[in-house]
Amino acid sequence: MISPTVTPTLRNTLFTTIPSAGGFSGLLDQYGGAAAAYAPLALTKDHVSDLPTIYAQRDSDEALLAFTQQGIINGDLETWAGAGNAYVYTYYDQSGTGNDLTQATRAAQHKIVDTGVLIKLQDSVACVSTGTSYYDFDSAVTLTGEFSISSVVEYGVGGNGVILGSTSSNNPRLRAIKTAAQWEILNGTGEVNLTIGYSNKRERIHHIRNSSNSNAGYLKTTSVGSATLSGTFSFTRAFARNSGIDSIDGKIQALIIYPSDQTANLTGIDAALDKMLAKPKEIFVMIGQSNMVGRAVDGTTLTTRANDGNLLEYRNLGGTNEFTGRYLDYYPSGVVTGFGPNVGMARTLYAGGDRNINIVRFATGGTSVASFLEESRRLLDPQTDLPPSDTDQWATMVAYTNTAIAAIQADSCTSCTIKFVWYQGAEDSNYTGTQGGYLQDLAGMYETHLTRLIEDLRSNITIATTVTPWVIIRSPDWNGNGQGGGVKAGQAEVRAAQVAVADADSNAQWLTSDINQSVTATWEDASHIDAASQERLGIDLAAIV
Questions:
Q1: Could you give the angle at which helices 531-542 and 342-351 cross, rounded to 10 degrees?
Q2: H or E stretch including 70?
Q3: What rounded mean pLDDT belongs to the chain?
Q4: Which of 111, 249, 427, 521 is 20 to 30 A from 82, comparing alpha carbons?
Q5: pLDDT (average), residues 362-389
Q6: For residue 323, is pLDDT > 60?
């Protein structure tokens, strides 16, 4: 078994335990006992963000690096590959038996990134095989008696694709005969043809079994002459035989081998594969103070619509926890009493195509960026005491956000991407070291505090990585809002700090809340932009997330 090089997704945390994969339950968590199992995506909970699924090699310098599912889905693999290609050097065995599949020769490896872009089949990650690609097991996979094999493959136009083979020129091998729409398995003494069948109308999920138990969902054995499917099959190679003969000419997403008949579990295995192969859920963690809570009270700009399940939100606003273990309707019925940029962003993203949008919003009015920091980080130099009106937000924010992400993972999909959106700054702009007996310069410390918070949340939020994207919405220009009472002594310093933090982080960017630079925001009151401006800000936000 190859030991993986450290990857960004196998990260060290600053002061707490790395969050687990939460509510996710993979195929092998539900249906254990596999002899071997391989996929670029997670088949177990442990392989979401803790254990790697592949060991990749890039063509620019032949470097090797291991990646978890989240490292693949969140863009770490593409970033690492740059504008070039990346290949699978090793498929790690997710069954727990440690029987990895390895190919050290680059020309015979599967490609997973093509000129900087992750390869996909339908909605999910895939690896492309060529006419000479193959992988060797660390130890031979020996099947005797009843067994079940599930593969997720889209075959190309080439010859007869071998799923399992050996180093010999012929046998044993299990291959698809595409021209005859059937499979055959050979073991040196004859062959048995297997009538081909598909599950859930998805022509790339194939279940093969050797069993006396008849089930229409599986490929069923039939006799050919005097041949019978019996004896011992010992496979040493996958995805081809010999030196690449009959290699699968197409895209590969999974291979699971059970040394037992899984007929009774067919429906559940299908559902788990469907979950793994579904389109990724896009999670936007939106954090801040009252403008993120939303004080825009004019609900006439929003049209109530039925929720089709693809645009959903969890929210904890000002300490009111509205997560009840299920998705809330994103568009509430009746009058909308307040919203932030979340509405315009989510509606715009969803309208742009077939996407699954999930908002996790945590926002509390009248809070400084320091209040979102874990206490030990807040008390680093420069030590910071919270303003009298502030309360510590860190523990509640992390626990709530991870709970919401766990529920999203448990719902109907393995793959989740995550991005952070930050909209805050009014509280810190009020304090420059001379206000109201509170002598700490929050405006002057803003850049340090926000930089720490970004680092900490990337390390402590489930499925986030060291390169998870951030969007920082620059604070509004309160001093010019004409509302009276809106002047904030540290505003210019805070706005400059927000831009500086984004510019210093290659995975962060900033967005003006002054609405398209040339259009002045309109105001609900001295500190909050109104409904039209919030919706417009959300539309602008959708263009860059």
A1: 50
A2: helix 69-73
A3: 76
A4: 249
A5: 89
A6: no
Tokens found for residue 307: 């929720």
Region for residue 219 given its phi and psi (left: phi exceeds 0; alpha: psi -120 to 50; beta: otherwise): beta
Q: CA-CA distance, 277 to 152, in Å (whole number)?
A: 9
Q: Give burial (CB, 10 Å; 0-12/13-18/19+) of 12.
A: exposed
- What is the spatial distance between Cα 238 and Cα 235, in angstroms, rounded to a whole number? 8
- 384 pLDDT exceeds 90? no
Domains 27-277 and 281-542 share a fold: no
Token reading at 135: 């992988």
Rounded distance, CA 192 to CA 165, Å?
Answer: 15
What's the whole-model pTM score? 0.68
CA distance 210 to 194: 10
Cα 94-54-65 angle, rounded to 5 deg:
140
pLDDT at 331 exceeding the cut of 60 = no
- List the one residue out of 82, 140, 87, 143 whose CA is nearest residue 115: 82
Is the pLDDT confidence value at 263 over 60?
yes
Spatial contact of 298 and 344, defined as CB atoms under 8 Å apart: no
> Residue 509: which of 483, 533, 540 has the closest Cα?
540
In the DSSP assignment, the letter for residue 523 is B
Type and span of the H or E element at 503: helix 491-504
For residue 472, pLDDT beyond 80: yes
For tokens 């979950």, name the residue: 275
For 36, the token pair is 């071997």
Q: What is the pLDDT of residues 133-172, one digit of tens each?
A: 899 999 999 887 777 888 887 776 555 677 888 877 656 6
Contact yes or no for 384/449 (Cβ under 8 A): yes
Per CATH, the homologous superfamily of domain 281-542 is: SGNH hydrolase (3.40.50.1110)
The residues facing 154 across adjacent strands are 251
Strands, DSSP E only, in 123-161?
124-125, 127-128, 135-144, 147-155
Q: List Cα–Cα distances, 69 to 95, 118, 205, in angstroms.
A: 15, 13, 20
- Six-digit token string for 290: 């009252």
Per-domain residue ranges of the chain:
27-277, 281-542
Q: Cβ neighbours of residue 328 under 8 Å, at least 6 residues apart?
A: 312, 313, 314, 315, 322
pLDDT recorded at residue 435: 66
The CATH class, in words, for 27-277 is: mainly beta
User: Greater confidence, 427 or 299?
Assistant: 427
Instruction: Average the pLDDT over each of 183-187, 390-394, 495-499, 528-532 and give the range with the smallest value.
Output: 183-187
Question: Is the Cα torsion angle 252, 258, 264, 269 positive or negative in sign?
Answer: negative
- The confidence score (pLDDT) of residue 485 equals 55
Residue range 355-378: average pLDDT? 90
What are the two backbone dihedrals, phi and then psi, of residue 525, each rounded to the nearest 5 degrees? -160, -165
Identify the band that residue 325 occupies on the pLDDT scale cut at 50, 70 and 90. Answer: very low
